[in-house]
TrEMBL record:
CDD domains: SIS_RpiR
Protein family membership: Belongs to the UPF0309 family.
Species name: Streptomyces rochei
Highest taxon listed in the record's lineage: Bacteria
Name listed for the protein in its UniProt record: UPF0309 protein ACGU38_15270
Length: 251
């Protein structure tokens, strides 16, 4: 029997979305994971970027037990989660033209690297400009976004385009415009967003694909272990030293 509690409805909605991205985005996930594996094999570095709550899924794959040690966070001050006060400033910064250029100009990104850009709406200036400028540098770009926004909203970038229009590979999170899965007659606004659950799952699925692809090629993937299991710190120390020239969260 279906659980009609709000919690049960949310879990059902999240599970349905996870099933959709598993089935409908399988080819894109495979392509994205392969791109990451190619980059690692060829000596490139990996970066992830997201603004606001989209940054949470980016942070989840950086310095992560079971994750790739060479995945780095491309941080933009003021938009990393809700780290700025007032939080509304973070939303405003996403709309500022030129901010992505300033960040990339001072970042270690270079030709041959790969950048995962996460933006639920994909409509703001920051993620669009980040993708455009990164590709101009010779960086391969993977976009994780909800394609529905491009059909139902207007771009806030001067080009009128969305993140999805400037990526080598796009992963569609299938999240409905507004990012809230539940409605109730007695509640004036929709609630219970699922974008973080789904986007994080897409990121981990992509990472798992990359690690497996490397292993299939006879290359040991640079994976980190939990520091809370015996031997974990020693293992991680060896991996971090071996790939130190591709890791930027240690300095």
């Amino acid at each position: 029997m279906s659980d009609r509690t709000p919690a049960g409805q949310f879990f059902d909605a999240a599970i349905d979305l996870l099933r959709r991205v598993r089935d409908e985005e399988a080819d894109a996930i495979e392509a994205a994971g392969t791109l990451l594996a190619d980059t690692v094999e060829n000596g490139g570095r990996l970066f992830a970027f997201g603004a606001g709550h989209s940054s949470l899924a980016a942070q989840d794959v950086v310095y992560r037990a079971g994750g790739l040690a060479v995945m780095n966070l491309l941080a933009v001050p003021g938009v990393v989660g809700v780290d700025v006060v007032p939080a509304t400033l973070g939303s405003a910064l996403e709309r500022v033209d030129g901010l992505a250029s300033a960040v990339l100009d001072s970042s270690p990104l270079r030709a041959g690297d790969a950048l995962v850009i996460i933006s639920l709406s994909g409509r703001n200036a920051l993620p669009v400009e980040m993708a455009v400028n990164a590709r101009a540098l010779g960086v391969r770009v993977i976009g994780v976004t909800s394609v529905a926004y491009a059909a139902e909203t207007r771009s806030r970038h001067s080009s009128g385009t969305f993140l999805k229009d400037h990526c080598d590979i796009v992963l569609d999170s299938k999240i409905a415009v507004g990012d809230a899965e539940l409605t109730l007659d007695t509640v004036p606004a929709p609630f219970a967003p699922a974008s973080t659950v789904v986007t994080s799952a897409l990121m981990q699925a992509m990472t798992a694909t990359a690690a497996t692809a490397l292993a299939d090629r006879g290359i040991e993937p640079p994976l980190l272990r939990s520091g809370n299991v015996d031997g974990g710190h020693d293992w991680n120390g060896r991996v971090l030293d071996r790939y130190g020239d591709r890791i930027f969260y240690r300095h």
